Amino acid sequence: MNARRRVSACRGRSTPVAQGTRIRRLFVANRGEIAARIARTCRRLGIEAVVPFVDDGRPLPNGSPPSEPLDLLDPERVVAAALAADADALHPGYGFLAENADFARLVLQAGLVWVGPPPEAIAAMGDKARARDLARQLGVPIPEGGAPADQSDAGLLAAAERFGLPLIVKPAAGGGGKGMRVIRSPEALVDALAAARREARAAFGDDRLLLERYLEHPRHVEIQVLFDADGRGVHLGERDCSLQRRHQKILEEAPAPGMTPTLRAVLGEAALRLAAAVGYVGA
């Protein structure tokens, strides 16, 4: 069955799909290489993947596109397309709506299985200020900094004086390196705050700012965690993502160069503690 026929196959469902039900058909709300990788894994697992036409100029991994391209930033249309395709579940890949807690809730409310973390976990960890506060409460080490309640220039300048220079200014919401500014002198701070606010408001609809002490020449190391729906979790080691351009990762290396077994254990335990605290599910 090609993608055109899949999308028009069903316009709704009579009963929701229960969590824990075996996935029969997965709707992939992404495109290009990301969608192709998800579809490839589906084939290995015996799951039918439905990849919508998004008009990005690249061929689909599963046949002919439907007549109308899908806007992957429109939550209602994405969910409607998944229901029309008679999918049991939706996988957002990454980017687009993948880190949008409201979208995850919409998917679940539609009776689809959401292949991703629970909306509450996305909301908790997607807000850098909340994530920092939670990490501090759990005893996870974090750089000096925070998002002051007083977000006026005066409030942020006072916080910057407490934290000390150099500082990094970043939006409290969102990700992808958007709005980040490194400040090395007090004179540069006011202009940086204004620019970061504008970019945060445009990108995330939230102009709250976070200040942190800037670490010179750090390594960017991530821990991969895996949790089931019963709260049992393991970590699968680390990857070094330090090679970046404009805060975007270019190369990931595992295991991380220079990593010791002791430090790996410390980082892994901290990652599991933080993920468990927000009820994380998935990889």
Outline the structure in words.
The protein is an alpha/beta fold. Helices cover 35% and strands 19% of the residues. The protein is built from nine helices and eleven strands. The strands form three sheets. The protein has a four-stranded parallel beta sheet with strand order 2-1-3-4, sandwiched between helices. Strands 5-8-6-7 form a four-stranded antiparallel beta sheet, sandwiched between helices. It has a three-stranded antiparallel beta sheet with strand order 9-10-11. Helix 4 runs antiparallel to helix 5 (119-126).
In brief:
The protein contains nine helices and eleven strands.
Computed structural class: alpha/beta
Q: What's the helix count? A: 9
Radius of gyration: 21 Å
**Which band does the percent of strand residues land in?**
15-25%
Number of strands: 11
Largest sheet: 4 strands, parallel
Keywords:
four-stranded parallel β-sheet; disordered N terminus; four-stranded antiparallel β-sheet; alpha/beta; single chain; 35% helix; globular; 9 helices; 283 residues
